């Protein structure tokens, strides 16, 4: 998914979630910026994430992010790479050690614009996170990366207890629960 196809996917992206639909146009606008895929764009930049579920759609894989100290989906910076699906896959593999990862659908699963707090000399900025749905085997051993404090398969009905009121995680959970995508 290159810059042009990302823009087309975003232009055709529909969501019933008001919070998510409120920033679709901002994502589209960002695709016109040549620096949108590098973290040096301090106003905000694209990231790619993987919402990883098991085949039975009962669990999701979350990471306790070392810097943010929050349970989140796996993902990270594009670092100049414009194919955010590939970014999401690479980050998911790097952060989990999973080899059974499989893309469920190459279309955008979710988008979220969220604030990253200032850290050192990097000012507060936005991540324009494009998320894709992945599937993996739960019985495969996990490898915690240096970016995480922990990594765990969380049963769907326990996700809210783990993440609190994180609306973007809860939105992806709801989408998964209602999804008819390749089960």
TrEMBL record:
Q: Which GO terms describe its molecular function?
A: hydrolase activity
Which domain of life does the protein's organism represent? Bacteria
Stored PROSITE patterns = NUDIX
Signal peptide residue numbers: none
Pfam families, A to Z: NUDIX (PF00293)
Span of domain Nudix hydrolase: 43-178
Please state what the protein is called. NUDIX hydrolase
Alphabetical list of InterPro entries matching this protein: NUDIX_hydrolase-like_dom_sf, NUDIX_hydrolase_dom
UniProt keyword terms in alphabetical order: Hydrolase
Organism from which the protein derives: Aquiflexum gelatinilyticum
Q: Keyword Metal-binding on this protein?
A: no
